[in-house]
UniProtKB/TrEMBL annotation:
<dbReference type="GO" id="GO:0005737">
    <property type="term" value="C:cytoplasm"/>
</dbReference>
<dbReference type="Pfam" id="PF00282">
    <property type="entry name" value="Pyridoxal_deC"/>
</dbReference>
<protein>
    <submittedName>
        <fullName>Putative pyridoxal-dependent aspartate 1-decarboxylase</fullName>
    </submittedName>
</protein>
<dbReference type="InterPro" id="IPR015424">
    <property type="entry name" value="PyrdxlP-dep_Trfase"/>
</dbReference>
<dbReference type="GO" id="GO:0019752">
    <property type="term" value="P:carboxylic acid metabolic process"/>
</dbReference>
<dbReference type="InterPro" id="IPR015422">
    <property type="entry name" value="PyrdxlP-dep_Trfase_small"/>
</dbReference>
<feature type="modified residue" description="N6-(pyridoxal phosphate)lysine">
    <location>
        <position position="338"/>
    </location>
</feature>
<keyword id="KW-0663">Pyridoxal phosphate</keyword>
<dbReference type="GO" id="GO:0016831">
    <property type="term" value="F:carboxy-lyase activity"/>
</dbReference>
<keyword id="KW-0456">Lyase</keyword>
<dbReference type="InterPro" id="IPR015421">
    <property type="entry name" value="PyrdxlP-dep_Trfase_major"/>
</dbReference>
<dbReference type="InterPro" id="IPR002129">
    <property type="entry name" value="PyrdxlP-dep_de-COase"/>
</dbReference>
<dbReference type="GO" id="GO:0030170">
    <property type="term" value="F:pyridoxal phosphate binding"/>
</dbReference>
<comment type="similarity">
    <text>Belongs to the group II decarboxylase family.</text>
</comment>
<dbReference type="InterPro" id="IPR022517">
    <property type="entry name" value="Asp_decarboxylase_pyridox"/>
</dbReference>
<keyword id="KW-0210">Decarboxylase</keyword>
């Protein structure tokens, strides 16, 4: 309650009002709506405070575990949200925040998502979604066509077929990857003679029937952690998600892949799926998809491509070639909430074969009846929102050539930034951008020279210190609140596979300009020089090595 002694009663009348009548235009919420629609970026800039507050401080606003016994006025609560939640949110759409895969959103999505929420359709079954079901099937058709490029006849035949699915819409890449591996597992351990299939009889009986000692999934060591979750819940075991060696450019080594498969088969472990990554989360690298496809075909393995982040590149006719071979995949994951600029909660998995999802089909009497067009028969999730509408709208409003421009400019910008880093005497580019992700670190010029002549032991020591320095700079920069880059750990071939902390930058936001990129490294350089402990240690060791 506020101090003005306004008391809100719990009464049915006012509850009816909150279901039907909007807030007045001059109310707090009405005001916010107006400001949001006038200038979204300005609103966010005004209300998100730049200075970082320790999480322990923020937690103090969220300590009460009792559900309130008295209602609050909407206006009062809105102010409360502005003060406690909005102010300490991350400004993901700020052009200087270049560390996230999910960045700025086009403004039209705000009012459009209100329509989506107001309609509150449930895509699990046709009775609660009507037009949203064919809409979602069309969106899946569009993405399927983007990958597999079948003709009009194909899509006319399959897109709206009750017994088939070109894919599944879901909350994100994690569920999409799980769905793909679920289909792959069930196809590899399908019904056969007396055996009714792994879905019915479980993994133990499936292994007994097929005479396997285990099931394995192969992916490069840069594979996304969601695959571990998939291996876990599908009963494969995290240990049987096998990480295959990568080359100097963070791409899977096909020879190592073949060797690993051989090794597994000798142990009677069935490699049932091979995953190619098209845009790794850390470096944006793309695996040699054609070569993986050859191996998967020969081994009769399911070939899945995790293009959660990089899949949108297919929209650019100028860069689509980078993903060559993706059209040979049995399934592909694409996140619309990454490079398609859709709000969080929009993932998709597409299957080349419209019948592939039969292996995970589920029916129930009151819902998902056989022969119905209910999307829920083929989705891991049950109730689902109409997010597909936002993808549908963006495809129409931005269009394929519009996305091409967005993709192309981000790749250009990444190249520009990589060049800029290479021009700096005191920075080191660690991974070149194939798409719009790159990694780098700060290394004082003299230390670079020292590294060139250092002994193995000295090198390792310097490396440890540089790792600490990278961590220090990244953390301070985040705390300063003006800009943000993320941080990850790689094992670059150049440094003998030593674990190396790096800054990671994703240049997807179209509002990020070259001036901002200049100031990001300027700020990092400044911060580095304020490092009280690590930098002096680095300087001392450097001098010792250079015998200064
Ligand atoms: C982001 C990402 C995922 C996981 O997607 P979520 O939407 O976060 O569940 C999987 N694979 C790759 C390569 C990714 O970049």
């Amino acid at each position: 309650m506020g101090s003005d002694d306004k008391i809100v009663d719990v009464n049915f009348e006012s509850l009816l009002r909150i279901f039907t009548v909007p807030e007045a235009p001059d109310s707090t919420l009405g005001n916010i709506e107006q400001k949001l629609s006038q200038n979204l970026n300005e609103f966010l800039r005004e209300h998100i405070v730049a200075e970082e507050k320790p999480l322990s401080e923020i937690e103090k606003d969220f300590l009460n575990s009792a559900i309130p016994e008295t209602p609050t006025f909407v206006s009062e609560h809105t102010q409360h949200l502005l003060d406690t939640v909005v102010s300490h949110s991350v400004h993901t759409s700020a052009p200087s925040f270049i560390g996230h895969m999910t960045s700025a959103l086009p403004y039209f999505l705000m009012p459009l998502s209100k329509i989506m929420i107001a309609l509150n359709q449930n895509l699990v079954k046709i009775e609660t979604s009507k037009a949203f079901t064919p809409l979602e099937r069309q969106v899946l058709g569009m993405l399927h066509r983007l990958i597999y490029q079948q003709g009009d006849d194909f899509y006319q035949h399959w897109m709206h077929s009750a017994e088939h699915s070109l894919g599944a819409f879901c909350s994100g890449g994690t569920i999409a990857n799980i769905t793909a591996l679920w289909v792959a597992r069930n196809n590899a351990l399908k019904a056969d003679g007396d055996f009714q299939g792994v879905g019915k009889e479980g993994l133990y009986h499936a292994m007994m029937h097929y005479g396997y000692k285990g099931m394995a999934v192969l992916v490069s060591e840069r594979g996304h952690y969601s695959l571990k979750k998939a291996a876990d819940i599908l009963g494969i075991g995290q240990q049987n998600l096998i990480a295959v060696k990568t080359d100097s450019q963070n791409r899977i080594c096909p020879i190592a892949l073949e060797e690993t498969i051989c090794h597994l088969k000798i142990q009677n472990i069935k490699p049932f799926a091979i995953i190619g990554v098209a845009g790794t989360t850390e470096t944006g690298s793309i695996d040699p998809l054609d070569k993986i496809a050859d191996i998967a075909e020969r081994e009769e393995c399911h070939f899945h491509v995790d293009a959660a982040w990089g899949g949108a590149t297919l929209m650019s006719n100028n860069h689509r070639y980078l993903l060559k071979g993706i059209e040979r995949a049995d399934s592909v994951t694409i996140d619309a909430h990454k490079q398609m600029y859709i709000p969080m909660g929009a993932g998709m998995v597409l299957f080349k074969n419209p019948s592939a999802m039969t292996s995970i089909e589920h029916h129930a009497e009151y819902i998902l009846r056989k022969g119905s067009k209910d999307l829920g028969a083929h989705t891991l999730e049950g109730s689902r929102s109409g997010m597909a509408m936002l993808v549908y709208s963006s495809m129409h409003i931005i269009s394929r050539p519009g996305y091409e421009l967005l993709i192309d400019q981000s790749i250009e910008k990444a190249k520009f930034f990589a060049n800029l880093i290479e021009q700096q005497q005191d920075f080191e580019l660690i991974s070149k951008p194939e798409l719009c992700i790159l990694t780098y670190r700060y290394v004082p010029l003299k230390t670079k020279k020292a590294l060139a002549i250092a002994s193995a032991k000295e090198k390792e020591e310097l490396h440890q210190l540089l790792n600490e320095l990278t961590k220090f700079i990244q953390k301070k920069q985040r705390e300063n609140g003006r800009s943000f880059v993320s941080r990850t750990r790689l094992t670059p071939e150049k440094w003998g596979r030593m674990e190396t902390n790096v800054f990671r930058v994703v240049l997807a936001n179209p509002l990020t300009d070259k001036g901002i990129l200049h100031s990001v490294i300027e700020e990092q350089r400044k911060i580095a020089k304020t490092s009280p402990i690590v930098l002096p240690k680095i300087e001392t060791l450097t001098s010792t090595i250079l015998q200064l």
